[in-house]
Amino acid sequence: SARDPHQPEFMQAVKEVMNSLWPFIEKNPRYAQHGILERIVEPERIIQFRISWVDDSGQVQTNRGYRIQHSSSIGPFKGGMRFHPSVNLSILKFLAFEQTFKNALTTLPMGGGKGGSDFDPKGKSDAEVMRFCQALIIELHRHLGPDTDVPAGDIGVGAREVGFMAGMMKKLSNSAASVFTGKGLSFGGSLVRPEATGYGTVYFAEEMLKHAHQSIEGLTVSVSGSGNVAQYAIEKCLQLGAKVITVSDSHGAVIDKAGFTHEKLAALIELKTQQRGRVEDYARQFNLVYEAGKRPWHVPVDVALPCATQNELELEDAQTLIRNGVRCVAEGANMPTSLAAVDAFIDANILYAPGKASNAGGVAVSGLEMSQNSQRLQWTREQVDTKLHAIMRDIHENCVRHGSEGKSVNYVNGANIAGFVKVADAMLHQGIF
Ligand code: NDP
Fold first, then answer.
1. For residues 168 and 132, what is the distance between their CA atoms, to the nearest angstrom?
2. Regarding beta strands 404-405 and 408-409, do their DSSP bridges make them parallel or antiparallel, or are they unpaired?
3. Facing residues of 51 across strands?
4. What strands lie across the sheet with 303-306, from one edge to the other?
5. Which residues in 56-133 belong to E strands, given as ranges?
6. Is 309 in the pocket of ligand 1 (CB under 6 A)?
7. Whose CA is nearest to atom 2 of ligand 1?
8. Ligand 1 close to Cβ of residue 226 (< 6 A)
9. Terminal-to-terminal C-alpha distance of the chain
């Protein structure tokens, strides 16, 4: 930490992984050799650059762009781009570090990376977003390639932004090779990619509950966030007969005791993706309770799915959820639960899944998008969804294999050890550089 004194999120992510690995490495000392631990926490390469673009009023705007190429040990760098004013080096380094282990867990050959900008797409016109994306790629294109680095979406980066970036990439490289995933269906995108992270999170929660001889059917669920991951987590919950009673955004939470219906969900998706509105407008539309500035964790539920952002569920929230009888917490977002809150869940024997296991469905289907692009084929919805479901089951089994402690499963240890072993083995075989 002396090296990175101003990177609290990165330190938090490294600490969590190292806490899990320590007892494992004491039993398997070969993984402490050849500087594996020192090397695995250091990104292979970081690119930071200026992005200047002209807004609709003719003013020049300047943002900061980044790409963290964390690890290529098991495949090309792979991970999303995030556009949000809070983006900084610490947040992207934590995300790239986590991504490396997550991608290893998917069983697909993908290394880890992450990138983004402090650009805020909110309130910008389509033309401004396009000019910004093009300006970003004018620099980043030289560092990307189908076998080098393949970015995707994340917070603030959806189909629109990926389309603009992939378009400029094609123009500058004079090649149709696929260097983005999450593309539109008309130019190489995969069916089920938009749904994949949310669906996968619920598939994972279902597996945890099954392993504990319970079913998700009939349970009540709180979801935080209202973006891509939240929307499709809600859809899968509805399909499996669970009742979702909350959503939120960065301004507040909506509580709906009657629960989501397919009709309400369609309205929420329309509002968030087409009109780029707020959940407050959604609450008004359906006459629901809206709590400004609040998170949804005080509402009693059986299952909690944090799907918004990092550190949105803190110790006090965890204690409230536990007091209210929560059984299962599966992260759709990356590191939404603070370290103290994670410990509280584990101490209380709650089924708790860290994002690197439970939200890996998104990057897994990105991997399947790359396979389809290489084959020059498009698989059906059923084919992709079946593979996604199988991958989530595999990740669950792998967590159980490495995380079983007596009768219970520590999914944090399971995911960290399983992901680490794959990356470390690849590093050991390829020599020191
Ligand atoms: P979106 O941009 O579609 O949605 C983000 C949601 O989180 C919005 O509801 C947003 O509210 C809320 N949010 C963002 N920042 C904050 C903040 N600082 N405080 C409170 N709420 C906030 O992003 P995604 O749904 O794609 O991503 C959500 C999470 O899932 C992220 O942690 C991401 O890294 C993770 N993830 C995403 C994957 C994917 O495939 N998309 C894959 C794996 C993980 P508002 O509308 O007010 O901004």
1. 11
2. antiparallel
3. 63
4. 289-292, 252-255, 243-249, 220-224, 303-306, 328-330, 351-353
5. 60-71, 77-83, 112-117
6. yes
7. 155
8. yes
9. 23
For residue 308, the CA-to-ligand 1 centroid distance in Å is 4
Type of residue numbered 333: A
How large a percentage of the chain has pLDDT more than 70? 100
Give me the count of residues in the chain.
433
Any residues with CB less than 8 A from the CB of 163 and at least 6 apart, and which?
Answer: 183, 184, 187
pLDDT tens readout for residues 311-355: 999 999 999 999 999 999 999 999 999 999 999 999 999 999 999
Q: Which two tokens stand for residue 151?
A: 């970015």
Give the H/E segment covering residue 347.
helix 339-347
Residues in a beta bridge with 115: 67, 81
Helix (H) or strand (E) holding 161: helix 159-173
Which token pair is 142?
Answer: 């030289």
Phi, psi of 426 (to 5 degrees): -65, -40
Mutate to test the pocket of ligand 1, among 88, 155, 203 (most ligand atoms within 8 A of CB): 155
Residue located via tokens 């439970």? 358
Instruction: Tell me what ipTM this predicted complex has.
Output: 0.98
